[in-house]
């Protein structure tokens, strides 16, 4: 792997802060705005806090809270100090958060108010301190140096910068390409927890890719809206880090992104780029576009050369304006886009593209500009990366997608066995996804070896983890978790012997399953909770290895 062209990522952050000192940087939409100089001041104060508390480069510092500008400032304070950031999704169950904090060896935890109310400091015994994301007060301190530093932080800051803190004072840790920057957890359970170790070269490479494809279209002073969780690499890389580097104003939606809130924000912010998961754009298209073209007359007219083009343009303009009207393109990633929706977007000439990536690549693997989109494809292999299909005939026979290059992780934290299974001796990362590739290099995903589902706001959902818990509950013999219209449902085959032995009627079985659902949901994150359970009359069809043929049940009516 050639890292000779990789420069210090923190040096890029440092340059951007100095360059855009007086520009708006991060905002909690409609509430609070920080300029670059404000972010720099927070970073500097946190560095003083870290230094006086005995935190050293390489130490782990976790962050858990809703998207907000102080989350972003905390993140930059960690990596520019040379510490390792451990972002944790705030929607995780408290026990999962405890597990990640402990497994990551975090010394400090930045935490949001809502999350902190659910946590138990006693279950995170190795933490030296817990810092509020609201105003940086100490929720917990087990370190006298930390307590002293926080109580005297303003004095220490004033002593260090007696004639005011200025841009020329900004100087950050100079990272090396293979140095660890982030541990990003793909799952929150201890047994299956995988902490993806992301080096600085991967952060640099993802930003370098974005500069290649979007650098001319995003200008300082422009704005974006951040909707995806920053605790996931997709949202972090392309709704936050790259925009910060470019001088683009990032607006965090601190409220739930309901259609009303989102449409109002889009109209006011007029983002220059929109990054979404498929569910968001599919919902908008189904609500705002499809009803307008259901009339058979309209469909016929759309096929006519001149009139049809005018109708398509009007539909495209209406959809574009509904999304703020000012974006270069809308990037869709995280899961497969519905074919009907994509065909319509392509037909009307909408500026969309579909990308592909994984946390292990921080995250980008494939991308195409909207002008070059090929329907059904997730794009071509990006700069700084190689890609191949592990198949005898990659153009026609699906095989596992393999990739290597600057974006690929160092491995899984404290899990050499999983690392060895995922990254082979030649450096190829095995994605677990199946695909084919055409002559032009366009990649088409045909299936997933992993069965990951995607929540409405971009959360990774692992159905096996839910199934594992459900399988241990009353009467459950076999189960499969599926996703329908953003909601999760379990298909359950009850244990026939128990049903017979207990002489249960169908209504009795249904009542027990509903109680199982109520008992299960509080133990898992809100976005992974079951909306219902459908009882199956027969065993699930299985492979010779006795694995359930999951794909046969994805479209079962619930």
How many extended strands? 27
The largest beta-sheet arranges its strands as 4-3-5-6-7
The CATH superfamily of the domain at 9-25 and 34-175 bears the name ANL, N-terminal domain
Helix content: 25-40%
CATH architecture of the domain at 9-25 and 34-175: 3-Layer(aba) Sandwich
Distance N to C terminus = 49 Å
How would you explain this protein's 3D organization?
With 558 residues, this protein is an alpha/beta fold. The longest helix has 18 residues, at 36-53. Among the domains are: 9-25 and 34-175, 3-Layer(aba) Sandwich (Rossmann fold), CATH 3.40.50; 465-553, ANL, C-terminal domain (GMP Synthetase, Chain A, domain 3, 2-Layer Sandwich). The mean pLDDT is 92. The chain has a 5-stranded mixed β-sheet, with helices on both faces. It has a 4-stranded mixed β-sheet with strand order 2-1-11-10, with helices on both faces.
Give a short overview:
The chain has 558 residues and is α/β, with parallel strands linked by helices. The chain is built from 18 helices and 27 strands.
Please describe the topology of this protein.
Blueprint: H1 9-19, E1 24-28, E2 32-35, H2 36-53, E3 60-64, H3 69-81, E4 84-88, H4 94-103, E5 106-111, H5 113-116, E6 129-132, E7 138-141, H6 144-151, H7 153-160, E8 180-185, E9 195-199, H8 200-214, E10 223-226, H9 233-246, E11 249-252, H10 259-269, E12 274-276, H11 278-288, H12 296-302, H13 305-322, E13 330-332, H14 339-347, E14 352-354, E15 356-357, E16 364-367, E17 380-381, E18 385-390, E19 399-405, E20 411-412, H15 416-422, E21 429-437, E22 443-448, E23 453-454, E24 460-461, H16 463-470, E25 476-484, E26 487-494, H17 496-501, H18 506-520, E27 530-535
Parallel strand pairs: 1-11, 3-4, 3-5, 5-6, 10-11, 12-13, 13-14, 26-27
Antiparallel strand pairs: 1-2, 6-7, 8-9, 9-20, 15-16, 16-17, 18-19, 19-21, 21-22, 23-24, 25-26
């Amino acid at each position: 792997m050639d890292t000779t062209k990789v420069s210090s990522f923190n040096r890029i952050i440092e340059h951007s802060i100095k360059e855009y000192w007086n520009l708006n940087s991060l905002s909690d939409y409609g509430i609070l705005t920080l300029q670059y100089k404000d972010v720099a001041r927070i970073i500097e104060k946190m560095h003083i806090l870290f230094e006086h508390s005995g935190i050293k480069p390489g130490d782990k510092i976790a962050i858990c809270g809703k998207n907000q500008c102080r989350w972003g400032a905390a993140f930059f304070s960690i990596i520019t100090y040379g510490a390792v950031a451990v972002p944790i999704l705030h929607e995780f169950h408290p026990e999962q958060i405890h597990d990640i904090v402990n497994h990551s060896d975090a010394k400090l935890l930045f935490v949001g108010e809502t999350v902190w109310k659910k946590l138990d400091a006693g279950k995170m015994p190795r933490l030296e301190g817990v810092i509020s994301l609201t105003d940086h007060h100490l929720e917990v301190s087990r370190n006298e140096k930390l307590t002293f530093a926080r109580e005297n932080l303003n004095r220490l800051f004033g002593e260090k910068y007696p004639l005011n803190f200025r841009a020329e004072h900004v100087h950050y840790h100079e990272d090396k390409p293979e140095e660890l920057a982030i541990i990003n957890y793909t799952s929150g359970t201890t047994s299956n927890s995988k902490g993806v170790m992301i080096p600085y070269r991967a952060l640099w490479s993802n930003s370098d890719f974005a500069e290649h494809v979007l650098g001319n279209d995003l200008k300082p002073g422009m704005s974006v809206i951040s909707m995806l969780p920053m605790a996931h690499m997709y949202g972090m890389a392309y709704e936050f880090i790259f925009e910060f580097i470019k001088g683009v104003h990032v607006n965090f939606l601190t409220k739930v992104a309901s259609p009303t809130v989102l449409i109002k924000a889009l109209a006011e912010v007029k983002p220059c780029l929109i990054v979404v998961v498929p569910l968001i754009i599919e919902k908008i298209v189904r609500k705002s576009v499809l009803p307008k073209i259901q009339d058979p007359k309209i469909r016929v007219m759309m096929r006519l050369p001149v009139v049809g083009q005018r109708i398509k343009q009007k539909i495209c303009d209406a959809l574009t304006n509904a999304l703020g009207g000012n974006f270069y393109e809308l990037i869709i990633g995280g899961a497969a886009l519905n074919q009907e929706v994509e065909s319509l977007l392509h037909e009307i000439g909408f500026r969309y593209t579909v990308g592909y990536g994984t946390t292990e690549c921080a995250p980008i693997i494939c991308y195409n500009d909207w002008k070059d989109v090929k329907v059904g494809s997730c794009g071509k292999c990006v700069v700084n990366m190689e890609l191949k299909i592990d198949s005898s005939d990659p153009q026609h026979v699906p095989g596992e997608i393999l990739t290597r290059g600057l974006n690929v992780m160092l491995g899984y934290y404290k899990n050499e066995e999983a690392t060895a299974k995922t990254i082979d001796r030649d450096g190829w990362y095995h994605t677990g996804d199946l695909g084919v590739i055409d002559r032009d290099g366009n990649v088409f995903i045909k299936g997933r070896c992993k069965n990951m589902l995607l929540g409405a706001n971009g959360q990774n959902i692992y159905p096996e983890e839910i199934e594992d818990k459900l399988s241990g509950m009353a009467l459950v013999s076999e189960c499969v978790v599926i996703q329908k219209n953003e909601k999760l449902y379990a298909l359950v085959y009850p244990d026939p012997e128990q049903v017979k032995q207990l002489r249960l009627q169908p209504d009795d079985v249904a009542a027990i399953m509903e109680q199982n659902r109520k008992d299960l949901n509080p133990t898992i994150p809100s976005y992974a909770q079951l909306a219902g359970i459908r009882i199956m009359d027969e065993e699930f069809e299985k492979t010779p290895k006795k694995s359930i043929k999951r794909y046969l049940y994805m479209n079962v009516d619930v």
